[in-house]
Amino acid sequence: MGSHITFSLILHLLLLILCSLNQPSFAFTSQEYYEALEKSILFFEGQRSGRLPSNHRVTWRGDSGLYDGSSYNVDLVGGYYDAGDNVKFGFPMAFSTTLLAWSVIEFGSSMQKEVENVRAAIRWSTDYLLKAATTTPHTLYVQVGEPNMDHHCWERPEDMDTPRNVYKVSTQNPGSDVAAETAAALAASSLVFKDSDPTYSSILLQTAIQVFNFADNYRGSYSDSLNSVVCPFYCSYSGYHDELLWGASWIYKASGDSSYIQYIRSNGHTLGADDDVYSFSWDDKRAGNKILLSKEFLVENSEEFELYKAHADNFICSLISGTPAFQAQYTPGGLLYKGSESNLQYVTTTSFLLLTYAKYLNSNQQNVVSCGTTTLTRHNIISLARTQVDYILGKNPTNMSYMVGFGDKYPKHIHHRGSSMPSIHNHPQKISCNDGFQYFHLGSPNPNDLVGAIVGGPDSNDNFSDDRNNYQQSEPATYINAPFVGALAFFSSKP
């Protein structure tokens, strides 16, 4: 294939060079990427709900949510708080788990000793998701905590006194989106434990199949079933079709069962296979699905999956100015910008997809992506991902790392209840719902660093307000960190 570079692509590359002139001149070493990897995984320990194990490393946290589900005669202790509040939202928790598992599947060999900590992070979630999925037949428990009341309080998870209501989807009130994402999480995780704990892996896969069948046979959006309990917090804006295709894809990857190939073949066109979508998130899985299924063509040489490779190419091309499919917006400092609220979630997911696709291309020795008359190499794809990863770690106009505890300058006033208040170990007296706001309004830095947390990030002009009240920029979330684990593993293995 000939290589053609358009004038607009040259212009885009020149603009990237000009942007880089405004950045710090340093380059991160593989050891620094590995340090960031360690911290990005440690973050999940700070988000744990339930009874903490003896080897828990985030020393300022304590046990919490020990009676979750008990008033409903179910055991829903464990899992993760998604962000800076004390609600356990099943939809983003499942997506974060899928992305952690995918990170290990693709880049676990580069994680060295940290792979055990990632497995522990995944298992903390899958243990919970198994309980949520198997306690009651044809039912999936998808949330613990009343979010509207929780958000009116500022209190440590150890002190929670807001209602720990339990919410579920069922045959009468379906939730195909959250159920199929849970199936994806369990199936992807089964691959992570296939060698180290085959019995557990088998349980995860069999449960994934059951939950997927429930999602597929009783179709509907959980936003319609649960309304204000999940909206506007984690509404399923993209619907549930993308999750059904996503769940089927992961079960096929984990099981090798050809009936799921038939499901994808028969249903793909109605479940989003033909859509070009240019972002990947806890809500919309379509771009991720294109990358995931492109492997069947690139690595497994299955011609019927060439469609997914073509759409994966379109996604990659959408990120590069000068290509016909260009859709992306970048800040003056070179950061991919999708939205004002938690923008870095899109940066971390995109970086992960870029690197995963580069890996698939390399496996096929097909190291180029065709964007009309423009040809992108695998090196171009990796370089774009590196600019995004480096920006998050501090190579940006503000010289600030957006990962707490990494580098000399990072956010000190993050929107996170436990981090912003005295540790339960230093201040064992209860701090009630309203009393906690005295700490919210303090101008001083958070007393506890939530090490490894990646916050929402800067605005479209690279400006960042290190302000607890500005949750759009200063709140961390599990689904921001999860794909970043894979991206950091990739770069930590490069000299």
TrEMBL record:
<keyword id="KW-0326">Glycosidase</keyword>
<dbReference type="Pfam" id="PF00759">
    <property type="entry name" value="Glyco_hydro_9"/>
</dbReference>
<dbReference type="GO" id="GO:0030245">
    <property type="term" value="P:cellulose catabolic process"/>
</dbReference>
<feature type="signal peptide">
    <location>
        <begin position="1"/>
        <end position="27"/>
    </location>
</feature>
<feature type="active site">
    <location>
        <position position="415"/>
    </location>
</feature>
<dbReference type="InterPro" id="IPR033126">
    <property type="entry name" value="Glyco_hydro_9_Asp/Glu_AS"/>
</dbReference>
<feature type="active site">
    <location>
        <position position="466"/>
    </location>
</feature>
<dbReference type="InterPro" id="IPR018221">
    <property type="entry name" value="Glyco_hydro_9_His_AS"/>
</dbReference>
<dbReference type="InterPro" id="IPR012341">
    <property type="entry name" value="6hp_glycosidase-like_sf"/>
</dbReference>
<protein>
    <recommendedName>
        <fullName>Endoglucanase</fullName>
        <ecNumber>3.2.1.4</ecNumber>
    </recommendedName>
</protein>
<dbReference type="GO" id="GO:0008810">
    <property type="term" value="F:cellulase activity"/>
</dbReference>
<dbReference type="InterPro" id="IPR008928">
    <property type="entry name" value="6-hairpin_glycosidase_sf"/>
</dbReference>
<feature type="domain" description="Glycoside hydrolase family 9">
    <location>
        <begin position="33"/>
        <end position="488"/>
    </location>
</feature>
<keyword id="KW-0732">Signal</keyword>
<comment type="similarity">
    <text>Belongs to the glycosyl hydrolase 9 (cellulase E) family.</text>
</comment>
<keyword id="KW-0378">Hydrolase</keyword>
<keyword id="KW-0136">Cellulose degradation</keyword>
<keyword id="KW-0624">Polysaccharide degradation</keyword>
<feature type="active site">
    <location>
        <position position="475"/>
    </location>
</feature>
<keyword id="KW-0119">Carbohydrate metabolism</keyword>
<dbReference type="InterPro" id="IPR001701">
    <property type="entry name" value="Glyco_hydro_9"/>
</dbReference>
